[in-house]
């Protein structure tokens, strides 16, 4: 069984910063990539940023230049540094990780979500 545990959400004023963390554990042989998605009330879940185990990154246009995604040395932890936060960044942020299991199966797992609220 695979678990993704997120931390770091909270309430911050516009212009402030937050750092999200996500750690994957359990039956994982390797991680293909890790990423962050977000879902605001009444909106669809959207990709915020993702990083492959090789270090390639991808960002939503709305966060480019403000957010930075990075992966820990153990390749099972991902961080999202969020600077210059805006009220429109308010959402529930989910960690996502496609992994390879010891049975050589590809599985995609999600965290439980961490709330980010940006006040104006």
Give a written overview of the molecule.
This protein is an all-beta fold and 120 residues long. It is 0% helix and 58% strand. The chain contains no helices and 12 strands. Strands 2, 4, 5, 6, 7, 10, 11 and 12 form an 8-stranded mixed sheet that branches. The protein starts with a strand and ends with a strand.
User: What is the CA-CA span between the terminal residues?
Assistant: 40 Å
Overall morphology: elongated
Mean pLDDT, nearest integer? 96
β-strand number: 12
Strand content: over 45%
Q: Give the oligomer, counting copies of the same chain as homo and different chains as hetero.
A: single chain
N-to-C order of helices and strands: EEEEEEEEEEEE
| Number of helices, counting only DSSP H or I runs of 4 residues or more | 0
Structural class comes to mainly beta
Cα-atom radius of gyration: 14 Å
Task: Assign a percent range to the helix content.
Answer: under 10%
Largest sheet: 8 strands, mixed
Low-confidence stretches: none
